Structures are given as structure tokens and as C-alpha cells.
Amino acid sequence: MTKLTPVLSAHWDEKDSFTIQAYKRHGGYKASEKALAMDPDAVIQLIKDSGLRGRGGAGFPTGMKWGFIPQGDDKDHYLVVNADESEPGTCKDMPLLMANPHVLVEGCIIASHAIRAKRAFIYIRGEVTHVVRRLNQAIEDAYKAGHLGNGFDLVLHVGAGAYICGEETALLDSLEGFRGQPRLRPPFPAIAGLYARPTVVNNVESIASVPAIIANGAEWYQSMGTEKSKGATLYSLSGHVKNPGQFEAPLGITLREILELAGGVRSGHKLKFWTPGGSSTPIFTDAHLDTPLDYEGVSAAGSMLGTKALQIFDETTCVVRAVLRWTEFYKHESCGKCTPCREGTWWLVQILRDLEDGRGTEADLEKLLDLCDNIMGRSFCALGDGATSPITSSIKHFRDEYIAHLTNGGCPFDSAKSTLFEGANA
Amino acid sequence: MTTTDVAVELITVVIDGFEVNVPKGTLVIRAAEQLGIQIPRFCDHPLLDPVGACRQCLVDIEINGRAFPKPQASCTIPVEPGMIVKTQLTSPVADKAQKGVMELLLVNHPLDCPVCDKGGECPLQNQAMSTGHAESRFEGTKRTFEKPVAISSQVLLDRERCVLCARCTRFSDQIASDPFITLNHRGALQQVGIYENQPFESYFSGNAVQICPVGALTGSSYRFRARPFDLVSTPSACEHCASGCDMRTDVRRSKTLRRLAGDDATVNEEWNCDKGRWAFKYVTAVDRLTTPLVRGADGVLAPASWPEAIAAAAAGLKGKRSAVLVGGRATVEDAYGYSKFARIALGTNDIDFRARVTSDEERDFISSKVVSSTTTYADIDKADHVALVSFEPEEESPIVFLRLNKQVRKRALKVSSISTKLSIASEKLNANFAKVAPGAEAAALTALELTNKSVILVGERASETPGLLSTVISVSEKTGAKIGWIPRRAGERGAVEAGALATLLPGGRPVEDAAARVDIAAVWGVQSLPSTAGRSTSEIIKALSTGELDSVVVGGVDALDLPHSKDAIAALKKSFVVSLEIAPSSVTEVADVVLPVAAVTEKSGSFLNWEGRARAFAAAVNDSFNRSDLRILSMIADEIGESIMLGTVTQAAREISSLGTWDGARATFKSVSTSGAHSVNGDQALLTSWRRLLDLGTLQKGEDNLAGTSRKSVAVISASRAEKLGVKNGDALRISNEVGSITLPALVEAIHDDAVWIPRNSRGTQPLISLNSVHGDVVSVVKA
């Protein structure tokens, strides 16, 4: 029996799933009607009771975040939806918005009602023009249908292509028209966020999960998942796997189970390493196939659930090469505000390039680890921390492979073998 | 730390095992300083908002037993009760974190210290020694940039040296409110940049150079000129305006190479303006007067020996009807010298320090209100409302602007500006702009809501509107608002106290008060002093021209600053003129004896800033042959046979302090009624103008880099006038009257419809000379 619990993704296979008609056909905008009739505090309580936790990676309880907004303070409040999905491997919010943008619109209506916001913003990454068009259409249709307007407005803002703007305070700066760089906290966004007003910043999936919880109740949601990680979520499977894509399943499912649903690693190959939550989460190996993929389980095994971006790499992949590519990404995306991340990523790339080319000695691995230690927990925001995760975890699991590069005088792998293009290995 | 009216809550924290009590809100890094524990830092600056960018100041912190999981930036975290801090001295984790950050900072920093201006006084160099590894593990490629990039004509940027602490951009944004530089790009290629289409023309940009913790920002004038360890530094005071900045003058081999803002929390905090910082080359300008000159029988000024020149001066003054004109550059001691010289050697009260448009109303205002004024910067800090009357703080007293701006940013201080034209400063201060026609300022002042917590800051230009100073006094008396008179020049307040005014003896003593005269005569050791009030500047000029006066001693006055300057020069030409000057001026051309004097860096002395606060300074250049005004006056007095006994600055200072305070009656103020603005029609407009900070001022001579950031000369008219004239921005406008005309590009801005504004002493626009008018007079404005 399948372990899948499609809620968000229930109708993605319908041709017109992204239209307001399709959304309404399946009961869309009923939840917001129900929620708007409720007391805002009751909505917050319901979300608290459901156990919904932030799906952007940190797993902070969503209801509690809403509860931090000061009430009756005579200030404007804002809801800001973080749709700046940019991490290598992470691909849940964009497919969700492509296939079902209205669920986010409805989620915004409900969440804004709960936190007494009259205006919500969706900050979406700039590169996804097709998703922007769909979301714009959805917002336009929602206005026409009267779900938006009448005192509540939803604004879609397109970013300019910076990974750092996924960091919530950098996102707020960018939204205000400044360069996206993380802000000093405190004050936290709940007190002084967008335009220095109380602001909730939530991930797309967190907000999109809200309508179903309102419609089906907290108990229904609680019935899925594990003790502390309630509900179902989108796992995005990519890489060396037969059927990549999004798999909506209760929290706590294992990679072994998801791989089964996806038809396994590409035929003739076996799992070498994988990320549980995108490139900034420490990598796992086949030893972690049965780790429960919930917030606690992944954490206990030494990584983070993150965005549940399961990137699968088989034995043809050179881990040094993969890590170098990720590190180049972080170097390119470092905003430059703080020293450890800015200078550290600049340096890390150079050391890793040398290692990949077989230059250096084993002592360089120690230097690399020490350097990561000087970046991890020393940088201004989590970007710098994330940059070190693939390096430290890969040296932990595959030190021998690094050394092999040195003894071999270069990469021992045939990089063509790991490519997925049709005929690449012909 | 300044005293406040509110009791401050103290918090006890433990840092490296030592307890320290600090006010609530103190940052950990600052609390550590109280204990003498220095945590390395780059982005942190006590006068800028915390940013936590460089990560150099990481320390371990626990609060009531709960430890932060990772080291925290001590520059961003305020102390809390129960906080235990472990710095690099006691925490191996903090120590490693700091060393790690230092190593990272050096990854992309060039090893060019031997050719870097900052080398030897560089926080990065110093802290790399204290906190860094002896050897770098970095073997890769450093980022490189084309160098240098000109941020402006006076500030250059070497991007590869920049550690991206953002002090410069934060200063420009938070302190000067000139956000024309910003960080661009990202990652290690992040860099300081300026807007493509807007020049970086801040009056305060030198501060960004001074607080740069590396050699990334350098001043064009100092770049590659000296090593810091070859410089001899002398604490000094700024001679450029009445703000009263504390300064440091750095000299190598008798030549001033740079000046820096000094540190005085009560006055300039740690800032100064670019004029104060960079306008010092006039001292070494090629046309500097170096030897006495005496006009011979052939009518030509020829070099002369000092005894010859002193004798010639004395001969022309002795037994003659003489007066003294002393300019605003004089120190307190020099002004005192002129004051005493006038009374004893010349036996007259005909002395005036005001080389500008003045009035008897202003003289009375000064004698009665300024001499006793106690208004200070602290009053701005506490004010509920500050009214600016005929005063543009950024142009005329920049540190007053910074102080206002600080309070506007910090607590939304209400500022009202009564002015003819909206200024950049008024916009930055978010000021309530009371737009008036030139001459109609008084009515707008009366309309303001002021209380006894308010401050009226009135500029020297108030004397140009009859009745305005009378209104300032009446409004102050009615509301209890304090008055701060802020003249433009550094020496004016000191000259008031030194008695360089027709109605005042030293210490604010009224000339016509017999007891006051007895006071001074006793100290000076003379039988009596002239007892009737003397002539003002314009009266002296008039008397010289009619022959009622024979001769005049002129010190630091340019006749071109006087109203009716052509008449003034003619009057001087008729008379016997002794000129004490640094460089040739319009007075030199008509002088009979020219005596070169020392510039500020070559002598000791003091100024009184607008508050009346003494700003003493020592000679920065010790081996100058130039003598102070006072020494020369003393020699002339000896030659005349009426000694003033002021051989040295120290002697003068001692004598001034021995005068004691005057507790007798002040001069009384005779109120003058306002006349209001003239009416205009057709092409007519009322002229209004003020001096900008950077202009054709003689003390800015020789510094082209500074001049490069001066604001462009424009003629400002209102939108409706522009429409009437069919003029748009940039079109040439001709402003003229029966005296002459000035042609400038038009700029349409918020200005009273009846007015036209032009800069007072800038390139192509010196209305006092060209139009014999600066404020309130009717001129014609047409499209040129």
C-alpha cells in the first residue's frame, strides 16, 4: 500500500489544476470562507494545535510564529511569503505554485486574517518566469472572484536573482527596495519586519498547508507524521533516481520507502550519498536509508531536514566534484556582508579546486576542516554555515576519496558516467 | 559621557572574571573597554549603529547560566543582568574565532603596507599583529581591482584593500545623511561605489577617510605624501568656522601635511567638515606674504626690514585720528591685542570685527545678548524645537548641522527653518520650511510655536534684515526660548569677548560704563580709556573717505567682503593703511605698510566657538618666522610710545584671564522695527544669498581637490517665475541692477516667488562685489 498522502499535490495531474475552476472544483476557497468567519485568535490556535511547522527548513512552529505578532498595537501588520526557492536541489515550492497557485493565495487570505494583516506579499525568485505568470494569473483571478480585494491585498514581488534573499531579513530588505543583505536581529520581524512593522515571514509550503488544515481540522493533520513532526510534506527527489519528482508523504517516511515509490536508484547503479534537505544540509550515505525523515530523526543522525530536497547520487559521482560545485554556488551567492562567509567561500573554492585537480597534501584536508570551523557559527547568517556542511560531511564520510585525488594526481572518476543526459554514456 | 537629567540604570556584568557596572543599553564591546579589555573590531564604531558585519569581535556569552551555542559579536549585544562574557583572553573558542576571522580578512587584503598611507596607523595592521597568525595559510589567488577609483576629487578608493566594514557608507547615511556612497555587488567582489549619475559631494566625506580601518579610502591631498611615524601631531582648533572643532594637525618638516578631526564629545564628537580637514594649503600658498612691505615715495610697495616697517607704521599712526578693522580670523588673543591697541596706542573706540554687512541693531544685539549667552550644543540635544533664522547650518556651521541631524535621527527633533529658499540641509533635517520673501523673516519667526525648551539659532545674516534681531529677542523673551548666535567665522565670538567692537571693552564691559572702564584701565595700567562709543565698520569707512579719520589698522579684513566695496577701497586708498595679513588681498593694494603675520598653524592661541567655549591650540609648526598679530601690534605700540605689553600669546592669555568677569549691567538693546520685504513686479525679484561651505574663501586657496566637490553655481527661482520667464533648469539667467549683473544657470526649486537666490561668494557669483547687494534688495531677473 502506498505511503503517499497527497493533499497539496492531490490534483497536480489534472490538466487544468492551476486554474481557479479546478481549485474550486475540489473545494477551493471554502477554507478561507470558514476561517474568515472565525476569530483570528481561534485560527492561530487551530494552526498551533495542528502542529504545523515551518517548511522552509528551520521547522519553527507556524502557529507560534503567528502568535508573536503583537495584537491591538494599531500598526499595520504584514504577511510575507518566502517563495525565493533557490537552494541547489530544492524544488517543491515552484512545482507547487506551477500546479496549484490558488492554494497559496487561499493560505495567504487565512494567515493574514489570523495575524490581522491587510496586505500580504509573495517574494518569488526572479528566474522562474513561468511560475510568476501562473501566480499572477491566479492572483488576478482571485481578485476577480472577490477572494482578494475588499480590504485585503496580495502583492507578488519578483526578486532579482539572489540566493541570500531567501534569508528572511534579507528578503525583507530586498522587498523594501534595498540590496538583499541579512539584518541584525533583534529586532525580529515579528516586532519590526517589513517597513519596521510586525511581520510574519513564512515559506510557501507552510502557508499552502493552511487551507487543508482549516478545512479538515487540527486532528486530521495531527494524525499524520511523527510525535513532534506532524502532518505530511513534499519530498523532492532528484538526481540518479528512476522517477524523480515531488512525493507528498507524512513526515517520518524514510528514503528507502521514497526510493521504492520512485522506482529506485537508476538501474545498474547503487546509492552513494544524498542530501536530506538541499545542498546546505550535511550529506548522508546508504547507511542512512532508514533514517526517519522528520525534523528530529534527521537532526539526530547529524544533518537537517531542511527543505526535504533529496538529491540522490550514485557511485559514478565524484563527491569532491559535487562538493566543489556546491561551494562555487555559495561563493557566488555570498552577499558579502560578513567576513567568514565572504572570504571563507572565496578561499574554500580555491582549496577544493586544487584538491579536485590532485594538487595539495592530506594536510590541506585539515586546513579545509579548520577553515570550515572558522566559518561555521561565525558568520552573520546561515548561508556561511550552510556552505561548510557539504565539505565537513563529505570529508567525514569520504576522506579516502579526497586522498585518492591526491595520490591519483587528479580525479579518479569519469565525470561523463554520472551525467543523466540521454546517450551521455554511449 | 554627557550628564543627563534622567538617572541611568546600571547593570553589572562579568567580563573575563571582572565585574563592571555599565549603563543599561551598553554594548558588550564597550563594557569591556571600561575594564581595559580591548576586543578587536573593524565595523564597530561608537557613533554608528551596530552592524555586526566584520565578525572580528566574537566572544563567548552566557546569560544566567544559559550559554549562547556559538560566539557572539560583542559589538551588537547590549549587556544584560547575569551576563558572563569571556573574551579572547579567557575563552579558547573566542580566541580561535577571532584569529580565524582575522586570517579570513587577510585572504583578500594585499600585502602592500609598505606603500599604503595607512601603514603605521592601521587598525588592520595592528590587530593582525595582536590577533592574527604569524603566517598565512592562504596560498590562492587574491581578488584584484583597478586602482584607485575616485569617489570624488578628494577621496580615492583602493577596493582591494577594503575589508567591507561599511563604516564609510554608514557614516554617510547615518551621520551626514549624504547616502551617495553605497556597497555594490556581492561576495568578495562587494565594493564601495558611488551612483553613476550623481556625484558624491558630501561636505563630510573626509570623516569616512578618517574612520576607514584600512587604507581603502585615502584623501587625494595626503595620498603618498608621508608615513604616519614621520609626522608630529599637535592638538589644534579649526579656524574655518564658529563650530569649534577639535582638531589634530600633522606636520612633517615644518609643513602641515594633514589635519584630522579631534575627539570632543561635547562639540564635534569625532567629526569635522571637509573644509576644516583639507583647507590648510593657504598657509603654504605661493603668494604668502613673507616679508614686510612699505610703500615708498614712488608709490610702490617694496620689501622692507621689520624695524623699517614698524617705524613707518608707527609714524603713520602716531598722533593721527586712527581706527582698527579686524576680521573674523583673529584668535581671541589677537583680537584682544587689536582691542587694547585701539584703546591705548590709538586712543579710540573705533574698532569693529565685523567685515560684512552689519547694522547697529546687530551691534546692540551682540553687546547685550551674545556676550552673556550660555546656549550650547547640549541645548540642541535637549531642545523640543529648534528654529533656524537666517542660518544654513550645513553651509555656515557644519557641526551644528551634524548635531541637529543626530537629534532628528535619534528622536525626531522638530526643526523649523525660516528662509527664503529650501536647502539640502533643511530637507535632510526634515525641517518645517517657513518660506519667506527676503526681508520678511521676522513675521515667520513670530508665527512659530516655541517654548522655554526651544532654541533659536540665528545666523550672522540676520543683520541684513532690519528688525529681525529685535524680533528674535522679543520672541525669546515671550517664549523663554534660548538664543544661539552663530556667526560664520571662527574669531567672531572671541572678538566680542575681547572687546573688538565700538561699544564693548574686553569681557563684555560696556564702553560707556565708567566702572567698566576703570576695571580695564586698572589692568592695563593706564589712567583712562576713551569713553564714548566708537564707530562701526561702515562708519569707519565713511569717516576715512570724508577725512574725519586719517589712518586705519586692518587685520584679516578683505575690503571685498564689505558692502560698497569699491567705496571702501577708495576710502582706504585715501588713508594711511597698515595691513596685517597672511596673503595679498584687496587691502594690500592700497596699504602703506604691509606686515606679514602667522597663520593659525604657526602660532598658539585660542578661538571661542559660537557657544563661547574656548578652543585653545598650540603651534603646530614650531620653527615659523611668522609672528602673531599681537606681537606685531605690540611692537608698533612700543614704537608709538604707548605700550600694550603683549609680547606673547601666553602673556595675552594670562592678562585676559586676569580681567575677571563683569557682573555690572549689560548694554541695553534698542529695538528696531521691521520694515518687511520690498514689493516687486514684472522682472523684478528680491535678491537673497548665502555663502556655501566651499566657495572662493581665501582660506580655501590652493586646495583644488576640495574645490572639486563644491556645489555648482546656480541661480534659483521658483517654478512660477521660471514659467513666466520661459526658463527651465540650466538656462542662463541674468540677475542685474544699476551696479552690475551676474549670469548663472537657472535651477527651479522651492523658493519664495518674489526671490532669486544665488551663492554669495562662489565661482562667477560675488553679488556683494558685482551688485553691491546680498539680501533683500530689488534686482532684475531675465532670461539671458
Report on the structure:
- The complex is a heterodimer of chains A (426) and B (784).
- Chain A has helices at 20-25, 30-36, 40-50, 62-67, 93-99, 101-115, 129-144, 168-175, 189-192, 204-208, 210-216, 218-222, 255-261, 295-300, 319-333, 339-356, 362-375, 382-408, and strands at 78-83, 119-124, 153-158, 199-203, 232-239, 245-250, 271-275, 284-285, 309-314.
- Chain A has 426 residues and is of the alpha/beta class.
- Chain A folds into three domains: 20-222, Rossmann fold; 232-314, Ubiquitin-like (UB roll) (Roll), CATH 3.10.20.600; 319-415, Up-down Bundle (de novo design (two linked rop proteins)), CATH 1.20.1440.230.
- Chain A has a five-stranded mixed sheet, with helices on one face.
- Chain B is α/β, with parallel strands linked by helices and 784 residues long.
- Chain B has five domains: 8-102, Ubiquitin-like (UB roll) (Roll); 116-125 and 139-282, Alpha-Beta Plaits (2-Layer Sandwich); 291-355 and 491-657, Rossmann fold, CATH 3.40.50; 360-486, Dimethylsulfoxide Reductase, domain 2; 682-781, Barwin-like endoglucanases.
- Chain B has 24 helices and 36 strands.
- In chain B, the strands form nine sheets. In chain B, strands 16-15-28-27-26-17-18 form a seven-stranded mixed sheet, sandwiched between helices. In chain B, strands 1, 2, 3, 4, 5 and 6 form a six-stranded mixed sheet that branches.
- The A-B interface holds A 162, 164, 179, 184, 331-340, 342-347, 350-351, 367, 370-371, 373-375, 377-380 and B 50-56, 58, 69-71, 76, 96-97, 100-101, 103-105, 107-108, 137-138, 140-141, 143, 163-164, 182-183, 185-190.
